Each structure stands twice: as structure tokens, then as C-alpha cells.
């Protein structure tokens, strides 16, 4: 069945028309021009540098004004100062590697919670082991989801752990993959009142385009994010922003050193750093540039709606309330933290044991078969990314139908599996005399 409702933006956002048109226009450009002088000039100086004939032929590339204006647009979208350091990468792992190196270079012990993205923690653990640094992890998920602790209770709990840990570095997540929105600014301020951290890294991958960001006022020395989730570039483009005056020089120095030495190995990162200097003739590797142009269009679209950011959050909250009610009628219970931590991501857990025993991949396929795309986890848990437009009646109907049918089909499959596993085994008997 074709997709009726896409609720998986936390994994990969849908490409809005503006970004899609930019991508198509770039494909048309390279199908005609390849790596000609026209393309080189476009990369370096942007759309306005082109002759009128090229601008008429490729009007949907108009959001690309050159690497400098694109970096400024990212600063504006994140609320970072105009002089903030911005790094672009085709993958998130190299930038997390840089963040881990910065933490381990400046700090003896790094404090974090169990809310952080596990692959990022693995990168941090590997770097800490190389440098002989300590990681101090505090459990927070259970107290937030089971006990529904509020912000004050969480901060008090983390304060106690931070005081006894002797940590001088922090790694926190602004919005977790399961929708917990941490009050990072308030949290870091409270911890700093006891002992100011030397370096703070914030994972904002689920925050950019989802919640308003103000990095100029934020506590992070380095923020990790991307344009391919809530911003909607469609093509992966990760970014790191260093907004603070006291540490952005350190970020720039270490990043450039690791790039030159080959230890920060990402072709797009290397290319965009070189492009910023104006020299793009000496690139030794062909680079996938397409993410730059869909991202520039998506970022421009987001900036055009910046005044609606608060309203979009309100609408996502209302959509979450409606989804909870409709899914609840079909036997799914919302897994929500205290309102202090709620976001535009809603987790729902199946009440019935039959659905809870369904494998996550099969559960996701069942929803997809009924036109609803979301993420599924073991234990009958699903994640929905809430849209910022009000549900239409047919969308609510699609949700009700999908959750009801998935529950029914999962229960039937579980029953059939039980029956196959417990039915009597036939015994073949030798034929005897007929009496």
C-alpha cells in the first residue's frame, strides 16, 4: 500500500518541494555541464555569479549563493553568532569523532547520561580509552519515563552525580531519539554553579528544525546536528557548530589539523573547508556535492518560517495529544515523560502481550502495509514524529485504521505461531491386522 502518513522524520525527513526542485536542477546542471567552468564558478560564488542564460536555465538553484552565505544561513537557523565556526560533513561519525577528541583533549572526565545516542557513546568511549580519560554515566531514562520526574528532580539527581564524579566535561543530548527534550541550558547552568566544565558537547541532531535553537545563548562549545531530519534536505548533510568565543578557535585549529593529517577523513568536509578559502582546483577526490544544494534550499525554507517556530511546536504537541487518544482506542499506550521534557516525538507501547512479542522489523512492515511509516522497537514500542500541520480527518482515520489492524494482525500471527509450536505431534503406527 502506498504511504498515506509519514511519521518517521526522526529517522529521515521528507524533502519539501523547494529542496526537491533544487536537487533536480542540480542533476540537470551536471548532466549538461559536468565539471565545467560554469559549475566551478557556481560552487565558488553562487547563483548570482552566473550569466543570465544559466540563471534562466536553472532557476531552482537560486538558494545557493556560495559556501559563505550558506554557512551564514546555518548560523541564522541555529541562532549562532555570525562568527561561529561551522563544519559540514557527509556523515555524522567524523564530526562526533572531532567532538570526542575535543572533550578528551580538554577534560579529565566526561559526564553524560544514558539518554545519549549509543553509537555516539561508542565513539566517545574509544577516544577516552585512547587518551586515558574517564567517562561517568548517570541513569536518567528510567526516572523520566517510569517515575515522570520533572526538570527540577532530574537536575537535582544529576547535580549529585556531577558533584561526586569530579568530571570537568559534559556530553548531553538536546532532544533524544525517543523524544525526551532535555533543558540543556538550565541543566548546564546548574552544574556550572558547582564546577564549570572545561568543554561541553551537545547532540542537537533531533533538535535542529524541530525546536527553536539559540546557540548564541546556549551552553555548548560544540553542537552536532544535521539537515536531513527535521530540516528536510533529504540527502544526508551533518554539521557541527562552535558558537562560543573562548573555544571556537580551538575547534577550528584541531579540525584543520586533523583534516590535513587525514585523521578527520570526510571528502565533503575537506572540500567545503577548501572551498571556503576559494581554492577548489586541487581536490584529489571526487565529492558528492548534491547534499549542499538541497540543504541550502531546505534551510532557506526553514528561515522563511522562523516566525512560526513557536506555533509549530504547539501544533506538534496538539497532534501528539490526538495521536495518543486515537492509538489508545486501538490498544497502544503513550510513553511520555513529564511535560517539562516533551517534544515532537511520541513513543507508544502496545498494551497486549501478543503485539509486544512481535519483532520490531515485522511491526514496522505491518504499519507500512497499512500506509503509515514510523520506527518500531522491540517490545511493541513505536516512535512517531509529529507533523507541524493539523491532522486532517482522513489522516486521523488512517491512524485509527493502521493501529487497529496492526494489533489484530500481530495478535493473529502470535496465535498461529503458538499453535504451530504446541499442537500434538502425529505418530505413525505400523499397520495391524484388520479385525
Task: Please give a structural write-up.
The chain has helices at 17-33, 37-45, 52-57, 67-78, 92-106, 118-131, 141-145, 151-165, 184-194, 245-261, 267-277, 290-304, 309-329, 353-356, 360-369, 393-422; strands spanning 5-6, 85-89, 109-113, 134-138, 169-173, 199-203, 222-226, 238-242, 332-335, 345-350, 372-373, 375-377, 381-385. It has 435 residues and is an alpha/beta fold. The chain folds into 2 domains: 48-304, Aspartate Aminotransferase, domain 2; 308-419, Alpha-Beta Complex (Aspartate Aminotransferase, domain 1). The strands form 3 sheets. A 7-stranded mixed β-sheet has the order 2-8-7-6-5-3-4, sandwiched between helices. Strand 3, helix 6 (118-131) and strand 4 form a beta-alpha-beta unit. The protein is globular and about 65 Å long. It starts with a strand and ends in a 13-residue tail after the last helix. The relative contact order is 0.14.
List the helices and strands and how they pair.
Layout: E1 5-6, H1 17-33, H2 37-45, H3 52-57, H4 67-78, E2 85-89, H5 92-106, E3 109-113, H6 118-131, E4 134-138, H7 141-145, H8 151-165, E5 169-173, H9 184-194, E6 199-203, E7 222-226, E8 238-242, H10 245-261, H11 267-277, H12 290-304, H13 309-329, E9 332-335, E10 345-350, H14 353-356, H15 360-369, E11 372-373, E12 375-377, E13 381-385, H16 393-422
Parallel strand pairs: 1-11, 3-4, 3-5, 5-6, 6-7
Antiparallel strand pairs: 2-8, 7-8, 9-10, 10-13, 12-13
Key terms:
Aspartate Aminotransferase, domain 1, Aspartate Aminotransferase, domain 2, 2 domains, 435 residues, 7-stranded mixed beta sheet, disordered C terminus, 4-stranded antiparallel beta sheet, alpha/beta
Amino acid at each position: 500500500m502506498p504511504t498515506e502518513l509519514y511519521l518517521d522524520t526522526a529517522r529521515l525527513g521528507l524533502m519539501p518541494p523547494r529542496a526537491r526542485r533544487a536537487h533536480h536542477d542540480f542533476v540537470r546542471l551536471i548532466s549538461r555541464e559536468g565539471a565545467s567552468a560554469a559549475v566551478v564558478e557556481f560552487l565558488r560564488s553562487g547563483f548570482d555569479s552566473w550569466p543570465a542564460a544559466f540563471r534562466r536555465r536553472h532557476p531552482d538553484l537560486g538558494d545557493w549563493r556560495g559556501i559563505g552565505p550558506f554557512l551564514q544561513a546555518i548560523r541564522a537557523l541555529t541562532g549562532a553568532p555570525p562568527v561561529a565556526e561551522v563544519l559540514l560533513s557527509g556523515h555524522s561519525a567524523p564530526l562526533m569523532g572531532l567532538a570526542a577528541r575535543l572533550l578528551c583533549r580538554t577534560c579529565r572526565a566526561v559526564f553524560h547520561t544514558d539518554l545519549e545516542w549509543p553509537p555516539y557513546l561508542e565513539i566517545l568511549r574509544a577516544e577516552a580509552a585512547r587518551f586515558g580519560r574517564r567517562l561517568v554515566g548517570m541513569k536518567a531514562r528510567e526516572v523520566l519515563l517510569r517515575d515522570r520526574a520533572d526538570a527540577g528532580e532530574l537536575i537535582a539527581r544529576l547535580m549529585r552525580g556531577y558533584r561526586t564524579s569530579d568530571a570537568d566535561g559534559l556530553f548531553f543530548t538536546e532532544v533524544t531519539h525517543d523524544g525526551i527534550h532535555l533543558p540543556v541550558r538550565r541543566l548546564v547552568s546548574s552544574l556550572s554553579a558547582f564546577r564549570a566544565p572545561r568543554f561541553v558537547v551537545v547532540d542537537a541532531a533531533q533538535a535542529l528544525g524541530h525546536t527553536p535553537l539559540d546557540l548564541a545563548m546556549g551552553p555548548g562549545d560544540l553542537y552536532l546536528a544535521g539537515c536531513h531530519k527535521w530540516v528536510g534536505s533529504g540527502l544526508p548533510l551533518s554539521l557541527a557548530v562552535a558558537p562560543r568565543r573562548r573555544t571556537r578557535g580551538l575547534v577550528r585549529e584541531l579540525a584543520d589539523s586533523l583534516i590535513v593529517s587525514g585523521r578527520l577523513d570526510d571528502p565533503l568536509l575537506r572540500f567545503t573547508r577548501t572551498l571556503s578559502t576559494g581554492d577548489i582546483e586541487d581536490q584529489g577526490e571526487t565529492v558528492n556535492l548534491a547534499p549542499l544544494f538541497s540543504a541550502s534550499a531546505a534551510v532557506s525554507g526553514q528561515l522563511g518560517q522562523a516566525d512560526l517556530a513557536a506555533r509549530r511546536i504547539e501544533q506538534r504537541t496538539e497532534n501528539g495529544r490526538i495521536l495518543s487518544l486515537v492509538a489508545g482506542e486501538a490498544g497502544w499506550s503513550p510513553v511520555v515523560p513529564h511535560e517539562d521534557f516533551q517534544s515532537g516525538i511520541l513513543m507508544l507501547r502496545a498494551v497486549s502481550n501478543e503485539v509486544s512479542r512481535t519483532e520490531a522489523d515485522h511491526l514496522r512492515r505491518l504499519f507500512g502495509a497499512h500506509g503509515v511509516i514510523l520506527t518500531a522497537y522491540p517490545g511493541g514500542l513505536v516512535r512517531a514524529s509529529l507533523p507541524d500541520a493539523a491532522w486532517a480527518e482522513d489522516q486521523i482515520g488512517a491512524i485509527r485504521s493502521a493501529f487497529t489492524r496492526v494489533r489484530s494482525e500481530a495478535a493473529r500471527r502470535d496465535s498461529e505461531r503458538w499453535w504451530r509450536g504446541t499442537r500434538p505431534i502425529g505418530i505413525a503406527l505400523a499397520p495391524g491386522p484388520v479385525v
